[in-house]
């Protein structure tokens, strides 16, 4: 935390870490795309702060710093990660983009590539859908962000169990030795 801002990464998203030739953290966000992401991220932060009451606010900031710091330690390791997003009716269409922004922010802390982090995204409402699956072949951040943006909100009931079972199946395809 510097000057009241949460620093998500010391490495700009458009540049690779110096110690890994050819690796990138992802597509560069410019102009309106960046402003849109920042607006959603701002909404996400407001929701997180609204959830904190009284003295819990400082604890929440510390927890976020610790979370980001922990994720950055995994950036250069083999990781197979499945994000499970709730798109049931209780979430409502206007809140679903905040879930996708959270996923993108977390993904940008990792190096998304066949060698490092492979990602998958499962959504659930009345049923579950695997929208992104990089577990077997890998992928890159640009493609991941494009696919993430295309995920629609569907609403419906809340079938969490089935989505978690699907996530477990996807992780069954994880690489040997990869963090899950």
From TrEMBL:
Listed name of the protein: VWFA domain-containing protein
Family matches, as PROSITE patterns: VWFA
Annotated segments matching region Disordered: 1-23
Top-level taxon: Eukaryota
Species of origin: Haemaphysalis longicornis
CDD domains linked: vWFA_subfamily_ECM (cd01450)
Domain named VWFA: residues: 80-180
Gene Ontology cellular-component annotations: protein-containing complex
InterPro entries: ECM_Assembly_Org, VWF_A, vWFA_dom_sf
